[in-house]
Sequence to fold (121 residues):
Amino acid sequence: MTQTEKTKTYDLEERTFQFAKNTALFCKQLPKTISNREHVAQLIRASGSVGANYIEANESVSKKDFVFRIKICRKESKESAFWIRLIKDLNTADFNETSLVLLNEAVELKKIFSAILEKSK
Fold:
């Protein structure tokens, strides 16, 4: 792994952006069923909210605001994992690999935000 790759791995703004982008690209590949449309809309909102709220947390004016935004990041990560699991289970095995990668990332992000909250106490 190059130094640039190591830096990117730990750049949480970039990582949350990539999560939202990869989620959107995954959703574009799904069949256009009624349930997928509804679940995809929820997933797109939740996955994008993770990164947007992290940016807001970094720009917060108080510790209370920072903690509040990080809690939202954690909540949206958990919600993203829920929608990914549901979409995975309702679609064919063709989408399993990508959905498992996204699910893992959502869980990892939730753990990261939980750790940030613990350190913020």
In short: The longest helix spans residues 63-90. The chain has one domain: 34-119. Helices lie at 3-9, 12-29, 34-58, 63-90, 96-119.
